[in-house]
Design brief:
Blueprint: H1 2-17, H2 24-42, H3 47-52, E1 53-60, E2 68-69, H4 71-78, E3 89-100, E4 103-114, E5 117-130, E6 133-143
Parallel strand pairs: 1-6
Antiparallel strand pairs: 1-2, 3-4, 4-5, 5-6
Amino acid sequence: MLKGILGLAILAAACTAAPAFAQPDAASEIIALERKALDGWAEGNPDPLLAACDAGVTYFHVMTLQRLDGLASVKALVEPFRGQSLYDSYEMSEPKVQVVGDAAVLSYILVQRRGSTSSRWNGTQVYQKKDGRWRVIHTHWSQTAPAPGAPPAAR
């Protein structure tokens, strides 16, 4: 019985000592960086995305057959889209930032709208704080099914 109580006390202390959920300043900063990259794509400008990436970033996207390794590979993927707006508007739905030490995971659903159509993407960005700045060290994008009840134009 005493071992059980002691175990619960240790578990409670561990959970309160290092929460894995959003720290307000980090979460706000990370979401702002992500919005800046998304705003850039609305104007056909990949520079904010590239500026947020670490040199050793890894990147998964539906357009690639394998993982991309390094900033140069990500730049080669996005450069052909420079000058092309990827959407008229977007929404970051259900963003969640989980912070553990100098690492953070941002996950959200990106809803892109272009004319009367929309698409939905699951996005995950892993950030690491380096030299006082949050840098993207891993990205994963996957397209999702249309939202339940979405009109045919959204499909």
